[in-house]
Write a structure and sequence with these properties.
By secondary structure, the protein is an alpha+beta fold. The protein contains 2 helices and 7 strands; from the N terminus they run H-E-E-E-E-E-E-E-H.
């Protein structure tokens, strides 16, 4: 399959205006209008606090469980981070995050530049979308180690379907 990047490719409709349009990037928007006031103002605050605490607990618990079950790949720099484990692949860049389960992934591609220290990992989905992320390495020697760790995770969890 050949992909072209540039002016000949059409932009995705809605993706530039609505980040929820891209699957896995954010949670769906609720059907409730923005100007609607809640019946009890104190109850939503308690729900928000519980909602904020739950993902933090879930992430720490999930990371510990995934580490115990099998190989885990994690690489990060000051802006970007990638984690691949038994649950799937999670990408984050600044404040944006997306998560892909192994059933949502068509391929994972790595690219190490000839010069420079930016390691690129691209997650391809079956619906012909791709999500690249660049991680700046402390040294070029990290590229080989990262590729070996990622290969171990892909060998353990990723199954190609024909």
């Amino acid at each position: 399959m050949e992909q072209r990047i540039g002016s000949s490719s059409k932009p995705l409709e809605g993706a530039g205006f609505d980040p929820a349009f891209i699957p896995g990037l954010t949670s769906p928007v609720s059907g409730e209008p923005a100007d609607a006031e809640p019946a009890d103002a104190e109850e939503p605050l308690a729900q928000e606090e519980a909602a904020e605490a739950a993902p933090e607990e879930a992430e720490t618990g999930a990371d510990e469980d995934a580490a115990a079950d099998g190989p885990v790949f994690e690489a990060s720099d000051r802006r970007a981070k990638i984690v691949a484990d038994a649950k799937g692949v999670r990408l984050s860049l600044d404040e944006e995050r997306c998560e892909f389960g192994w059933d949502e992934i068509g391929a994972v591609e790595t690219e190490s530049p000839r010069f420079g220290k930016r390691f690129t990992i691209t997650v391809h989905t079956p619906d012909r979308r791709w999500y690249p992320i660049e991680i700046e390495a402390a040294a070029r020697a990290n590229f080989k180690e990262w590729e070996e760790q990622l290969d171990a995770v892909l060998d353990a969890y990723f199954e190609e379907s024909d």
